[in-house]
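In the current project phase, the collection of sequences with tokenised folds has grown. A representative record is quoted in full directly below:
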Amino acid sequence: MADRQEYERVAQEALPVLYKIAFGILRSDADARDAVQQALLRGWEKKENAREGHFRWYLTRILINECRNIQRHRMRVFPVELPPAVQDMPPDYQDLYDAIFRLPEKLRLPLMLKYLQDCSEKEGAEALGIPVTTFKARLHRARTELRKTLDREVMFE
């Protein structure tokens, strides 16, 4: 990542997905926006640390760390409230997004990285700092839980 224009291009492309990941972790619009801004700033400051061609994943890793910092701070300051619905989600997918956001974070993050960020198992594991086998197992458990939740909701309609 050599120049500002290239950084801005990559950051602009990654912005919607970074926000969704941050919202998925923090469940707060304001906190998600703060985390994304902080991650973009830190990404620019430390751009030389990213491997060539992996800057998007590097930004994702920074974002996850920023979200965890916000969570730690928030737990000391006030209790967590349930989030409002994500504004830009298609209405047809409301049940799916609700089910995803109800998953525990350790299952939700691999799912979001795989399907929103379109990263491979190896890249997702690297972003979360876990072994690839653990990432795959969590992804499988997340899909299984999601399927159960959505099937249960369809049954009771």
About this structure: Residues 132-155 form the longest helix (24 residues). The domain at 89-157 is CATH 1.10.10.10 (Arc Repressor Mutant, subunit A). Residues 78-87 have pLDDT under 50 and may be disordered.
